[in-house]
């Protein structure tokens, strides 16, 4: 449990004890005052009775006046005794008071802790606090992120009914490139939202995406099974459609890839990766030798981003086939882990190329290029068509971080001039 919880619980327990102990210790002072007042009234009564007796014996008072005065004196004596004293039970004795105090001090805190652990929601509070810490953690602090993700996982396993927690855990594992763990977290997310078909479909689609990244772009049985689960619940689940389009494109089934990606355009026109999807559609039409529709022929850049001009080193031009896949990645400066903030897919025959990377090329709404100040851009020619770097791929990066801005500044040069080795 957190320090904040214990401080708040202690304050409340002390407050509860004060309600119990105050009357135990302070009722005696009031009772003593009442006793002193009663004794004073009794002494005054006796003194006045003695005076009446003396006056009656001396013949000053006759029988009638003597009787009347005695009755009035007796009545005034009763009026001085509070009615509450006749009906209110009074805790008598120092030992009784101490016993009640001791039992209260022991029983109230113990009962509070026991009942809260039995019926309280501390597990949800701890999950929420861990999620806040993870959301505030700098992405470059990988060790702390790993520790927090482990804590969140333990608390979610103990109390799994928390869709927001599972979603955050899955996204965190994706940033850490722990794709198998991410796929598992997204499956747990699917189980926690199984009363909402569309949300469950998205969870399975995200799980398929994590498995796809983990298999380095291979359409394994696990990836296919997750895609089928997603599309059974929602045939238009965009993560599943995107993966099917990528797989079809890699198999040179360009017409099929276009169908999947254009379906995403129809059902999710504001998708955060719509820029990359349109690039894929344009490229698929190009491979078919056809002109793309006007809706995807050109997409205007908007918002914060960076503009780069990518070229291939002169001595590598004869080594790179024209149909080699070209990936452009933008990552936050000084951050090496996790998915990039922007990804564009082109081909080697488009080089040299000038392109503006902005939020149209984001991989997720939570990680966008407009949310950071500086990025590093890497261009990679992939021989296998996989997004993961492999030996034999050609690559180049910006020498210094590029400032993200709203304007269309002069493009920053990115030269592909090295070949990756084992």
Automatic annotation (TrEMBL):
Keywords: Cytochrome c-type biogenesis, Membrane, Repeat, TPR repeat, Transmembrane, Transmembrane helix. The keyword RNA-binding does not apply. It holds the Pfam family Ig_CycH. One of its GO terms (biological process) is cytochrome complex assembly. TPR repeats lie at residues 238-271. Residues 306-417 form the Cytochrome c-type biogenesis protein H Ig-like domain. InterPro entries: C-type_cytochrome_biogenesis, Cyt_c_biogenesis_CcmI, Ig_CycH, TPR-like_helical_dom_sf, TPR_CcmH_CycH, TPR_rpt. Its main location: other. The keyword Oxidoreductase does not apply. Residues 140-270 form the Cytochrome c-type biogenesis protein H TPR domain. The chain crosses the membrane at residues 6-25, 97-116. GO terms for cellular component: cell envelope; plasma membrane. SUPFAM superfamilies: TPR-like. It is found in: Cell envelope. PANTHER family: CYTOCHROME C-TYPE BIOGENESIS PROTEIN CCMH, CYTOCHROME C-TYPE BIOGENESIS PROTEIN CYCH. This is Cytochrome c-type biogenesis protein CycH.
């Amino acid at each position: 449990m957190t320090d904040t919880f214990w401080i708040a619980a202690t304050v409340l327990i002390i407050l509860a004890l004060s309600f119990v102990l105050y009357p135990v210790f302070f009722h005696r002072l009031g009772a003593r005052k009442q006793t002193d007042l009663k004794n004073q009234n009794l002494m005054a009564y006796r003194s006045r009775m003695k005076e009446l007796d003396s006056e009656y014996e001396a013949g000053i008072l006759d029988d009638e006046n003597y009787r009347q005065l005695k009755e009035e004196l007796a009545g005034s004596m009763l009026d001085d005794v509070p009615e509450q004293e006749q009906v209110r039970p009074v805790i008598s004795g120092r030992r009784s008071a101490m016993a009640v105090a001791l039992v209260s001090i022991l029983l109230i805190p113990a009962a509070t802790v026991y009942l809260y652990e039995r019926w309280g929601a501390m597990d949800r509070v701890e999950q929420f606090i861990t999620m806040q810490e993870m959301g505030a953690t700098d992405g470059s602090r990988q060790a702390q992120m790993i520790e927090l993700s482990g804590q969140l996982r333990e608390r979610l396993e103990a109390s799994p009914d928390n869709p927001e927690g599972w979603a955050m855990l899955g996204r965190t594992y994706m940033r850490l490139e722990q794709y198998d763990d991410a796929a598992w977290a997204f499956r747990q997310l699917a189980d926690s939202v199984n009363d909402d078909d569309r949300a469950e479909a998205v969870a399975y689609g995200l799980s398929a995406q994590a498995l796809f990244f983990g298999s380095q772009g291979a359409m394994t049985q696990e990836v296919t099974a997750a895609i089928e689960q997603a599309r059974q619940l929602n045939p238009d689940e965009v993560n599943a459609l995107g993966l099917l389009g990528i797989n079809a494109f890699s198999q040179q089934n360009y017409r099929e890839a276009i169908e999947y990606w254009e379906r995403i355009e129809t059902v999710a026109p504001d998708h955060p990766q719509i820029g990359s999807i349109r690039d894929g559609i344009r490229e698929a039409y190009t491979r078919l030798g056809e002109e793309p529709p006007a809706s995807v022929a050109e997409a205007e850049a908007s918002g914060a981003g960076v503009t780069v001009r990518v070229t291939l080193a002169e001595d590598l031009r004869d080594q790179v086939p024209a149909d080699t896949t070209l990936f452009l990645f933008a990552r936050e400066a000084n951050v090496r882990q996790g998915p990039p903030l922007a990804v564009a897919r082109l081909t080697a025959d488009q080089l040299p190329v000038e392109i503006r990377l902005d939020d149209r090329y984001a991989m997720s709404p939570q990680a966008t290029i407009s949310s950071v100040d500086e990025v590093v851009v890497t261009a990679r020619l992939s021989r296998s068509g996989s997004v993961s770097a492999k030996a034999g791929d050609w690559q180049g990066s910006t020498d210094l971080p590029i400032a993200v801005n709203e304007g269309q500044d002069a493009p920053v040069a990115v030269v592909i001039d090295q070949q990756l080795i084992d």
